[in-house]
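Ticket #4471: complex job returned nothing on first submit. Input attached below:
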Amino acid sequence: MAKVYTGRDGRLLIGGTEQLKVTNWSLTGALEVLETTTLGEYQRSYVPGVQEFSGSASLLYYNNGSGRNDAATALKNILKTGSVADTDTVSLQLRLVEGNTNHDISLTAYITDVTYSASVGEVSSAQISFRATGALTGVTI
Amino acid sequence: MGVYLGNAGQVELVRKSLEGDKESVVNPSDVNSSANRFSFDFDEGFLITGDFVELSTTDGTDLDFVDASGWGVGAVQTSGNWYIFVDQLGGIKLYDNFADSLDGGTSGLVSLNTIARDIPIRARIRDADYRVLAAVSEYELNTNREVVDITTLSDEHRQQYSSLISGSGNLVAHWDYVNEGTREPVHYLMQLILRTEIGSSFRGKFYVKTENATPAAGSYNQAQVNDSLWWEFDAIVTGSAVSFSSSDLITGRIEFVATGPIRLKAQVAPGDKMLQESGDEILLDQDATSSLLLEAT
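Support reply: We reran it on our side without changes. The output follows.
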């Protein structure tokens, strides 16, 4: 059956927990290529270099009434009094749901940027950017 | 259920300024005590005849150029409120009541004294009384509630969250420039939009139903006759237009936006009857069918 995916199908999981009130996520994958073209050749040639994965997500700054605020938890990866250790990675799953099937991209990443704001006439939200460390841990898209 | 026509409506406004005041200096040569007229440096349009103005000194000294007879306490103070008449040359006369200030004559005119020193002053438009805006033929008021989209991933229906309220509208009135004492002409609002230094704000009451208005048709309770309902808010004049047509009345169209809270108020008048705490009327001994009334003011 044909299927068009929209935001209704999207989920974001951090550490295996589906996040509350996510308004968007995005992921960019890039491959660095190293040129191997030499004199006398007529076409450029390359070999694969290093892969890179980064992305961003926005979460409403929302308290579910039980004290759970996923945006605040994400912000605390950077907004904290102590320094960031190399163990401060997060396990992310960017998911599109199709019935009982999950299309996931899983990665381990550092939260690299957070933006947290309050504006007149707008809902407060947290924008986070992340950069993967190591290879993707799962791809089931 | 009654059916009301537009003639049950009305617009009232209070002259005021939301955006500050004006500081200047009154020099001895600015005061003409024989004509009871003075002036200070202000841009044309800053003050409009009929404004209720608070004048005060900024150095703590008395406002010597206003005669003691012009003060309610009979003695010169550092600050006082008067209605003003502004002539074509920017000269100001002070009056103790609104109606006389419109005429610019000698009735109600506050006497001035010569001064021998410069007096630094601050002028501020004060809230005065509500006056009916004359000859209004129609008005429209829109109130809007902004919503913020808080739809999130996995939602199947859009979710919105209440945000800010704003209001705007317009009114159309037959143009006149003569103030009748208790009624403001639409010309005043046209003057307001040109007032540069302290803004073009006013406080308005836009009535849906005025007191003693009855439905044009349908049923209603006699006790409803004294009820009145209105929107009340501060507003800023954002546009004015005058239309001329050889075969039609000259009309002025004013556009405004609300600033601050917008209230929809209702006065369910008890027929000017004095009530007990329980809400019951106080019946007269002489006639059990009559009740004690409040004195009309």
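Chain B touches chain A through twelve residues (CB under 8 Å). Closing as resolved unless it happens again.
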